[in-house]
Amino acid sequence: MSEVTRSLKRILAHAYHILVSARRDLFRLFDVTLWPLVLFLSMTLFAGSFTAEPRVIGVIVLGALGWRIIYHFQMEAVQLYMDNYWMGMIEHVMISPVRWWEFILGGAISAVGKIAVIALLFLGLGHYVFHFTVHAWGATLIGFLACAACGLILSVFSLGVAFLKRGDAFAFIFAFPDAIAVLSGVFYPVSVFPAPVRMLAETLPTTHAFNLLKATLGMAEWNPWRFFATLAVWSLLAVGFTGWALDKARRAGKLVKMK
Amino acid sequence: MGFSWVLKKFTTWELLSYYALLYGMPRSRVEEVMALAGITEKRDAQVSLFSSGWRQRFFIAKGIINRPKVLFMDEPTVGLDVDAAHAVRDIIRELNRGGCTILLTTHYMREAEELCDRIALISEGRIVAEGTAAELKAQVKSDEAILIQGQLDPSLRERLARVPGVLGVAQNETSCRLLVRDHGSMRPVLAALLEAEALVEGIAFDEPTLEDVFLLLTQKGLEVGDE
After folding, report:
1. pTM (2 decimals)?
2. What is the pLDDT along chain A (259 residues), one digit of tens a residue?
3. Which candidate from A9, A12, A21 shows the least CB-CB separation from B6?
4. Is residue A30 less than 8 Å (CB to CB) from chain B?
5. Contact between A83 and B6 using a beta-carbon 8 Å cutoff
6. In this structure, are strands B70-74 and B101-105 parallel, antiparallel, or unpaired?
7. Which residues of chain A are within 8 Å of residue B7 when distances are taken between CB atoms?
8. Do A83 and B22 touch (CB under 8 A)?
9. CA distance B10 to chain A (A)
10. C-alpha angle with apex B96: B95 to B99, nearest 5 degrees?
11. Are the C-beta atoms of B131 and B118 separated by less than 8 Å?
């Protein structure tokens, strides 16, 4: 068997792990069903009670879905790594053939499965309860792909943090998306921020990904060059950081089995 | 967040399938290792619900899923009941017969004697003797062991250790085991027991075991070739 085939099988193993976990564990199942629905319905019912403007509902539906895309593409790989770490499993990157980017890709595959469920819920409810319909499917799908790319970058960063901080990593990993959600203008334009904060927001690829989603509703302008430029820079930073974190953790013996 | 317990909620089949994929093994290998480890009946059971015996069998199945040439087993039967320990030893024999080299660590000398082709005795981090069971027993130049049972004073140990022909003594409250040079050592041992007015309930010859060898070597600080 070639190394490429072995690598593909390892990636599929990770995806299998996550999908079976969602089936076997209520906490993870609710992460794909109940909690997204609670947040979604809270916002849409609130907005719907104040305004009949369909684009407001549209921003919430697309924004909430875009945000779940980022969340799942970020969390799956880290969850997978920490499962193995806490169980003291031999698959650890220190002493096994598993590579860190295989965790990322396996997580991405399972994220696609979970997002499909969430998208069905959000778009279905958005359509049948609030009469929202996606008109520009091409641009909207590109917007979702943009969010997925941002989620992958976050997952690479988060994995690096997990290598260094191990059990304490989750405090940081959950803080990243929360901070970024506020700065990225998921449901509002970043022009509401004072100038220094707005400049910071403009450096994030997530801001431009959500701009694209809002642009499909005529509520923002999208600059593809800014998106790709910020994506490229953050990708390089993420890979560089995680490569450094892995090396540092390996040298410090932080990747061995720990009880 | 409690992630550590998620994998335990998997069934045997699911968890072994995961490992099979990780190691690039075909799905059929899962059925093979379940049969070898004797856990096929637990195929659809959650591993979190396994007793220690079943869990040990599961870990063996997991350990051999990628057909290792060398397997390290660290005290695989510790904490297991008699049946479970027996089953695990059978699996170990079967694996070895199948060509797997097994490095087994154990505190049960009888288990080492039963399973191992070569044994290294380790005391305080150093190998004090190495060889087959027969070679190890031969090193201490003892043909017999004497087992004494009764209400035995702790001071008896020292007295018996000074008896000519006695190579080593191991004692607890109700029994004492002497490693002796040969049959002729019984007479002086009996004399020492009478002199000590020991309350002996039974006394018999026994074959020296690996445990005797270990105790003797570690008590005297002996290594190979010292005697």
Report:
1. 0.76
2. 888 998 999 899 889 988 898 888 888 889 889 989 998 999 999 998 888 788 889 999 999 999 999 999 998 888 888 887 776 665 666 556 778 888 899 999 999 999 999 999 999 999 998 888 898 899 999 999 999 999 999 999 998 998 888 778 888 888 888 888 899 999 999 999 999 999 999 999 999 999 999 999 998 999 999 999 999 999 999 999 999 998 898 888 777 644 3
3. A21
4. no
5. yes
6. parallel
7. 17, 21, 83, 87, 89
8. no
9. 7
10. 95
11. yes
Where is B199: in which H helix or E strand? strand B199-206
All residues at 6 or more sequence positions from A97 whose CB lies less than 8 Å from its CB, including other chains: A6, A10
Of the partner residues A5, A13, A83, the one whose CB lies closest to the CB of residue B7: A83
Nearest CB neighbour to A87, from listed B1, B4, B22: B4
> Does A195 touch chain B if contact means CB atoms closer than 8 Å?
no
Integer angstrom CA distances of residue A166 from A5, A86, A102, B100: 30, 9, 18, 35
- Using CA atoms, how far apart are residues B69 and B28, in angstroms rounded to an integer? 19
- Chain B residues near residue A12 by CB distance under 8 angstroms: 21
- Of the candidates B3, B14, B22, the beta carbon closest to that of A82 is on B3
Q: For residue B56, what are its two tokens? A: 């040990």
A window 106-165, beta carbon within 8 A of B? none
Measure the CA–CA gap between B208 and A121, rounded to whole angstroms. 74
Nearest CA in chain B to A171: B1
Q: How many CB atoms lie within 10 A of CB B179?
A: 28
By the 10 Å C-beta count (0-12 exposed, 13-18 middle, 19+ buried), A65 is classed as buried
Neighboring chain A residues of B14 at a CB cutoff of 8 Å: 20, 24
Cβ pair B176, B160 in contact under 8 A:
yes
Tokens, residue A83: 């499962």
Please, what sign has the CA dihedral across residues A45, A46, A52, A53? negative
CA B104 centroid distance within chain: 9
Q: Write out the H or E segment, with its range, that includes residue B72.
A: strand B70-74
Looking from the CA of A249 toward its CB, the CA atoms found within 13 Å total 22
Euclidean distance between CA atoms B115 and B163, whole angstroms: 35
A9 Cβ under 8 Å from any chain B Cβ: yes
What is the value of ipTM here, to two decimals?
0.78
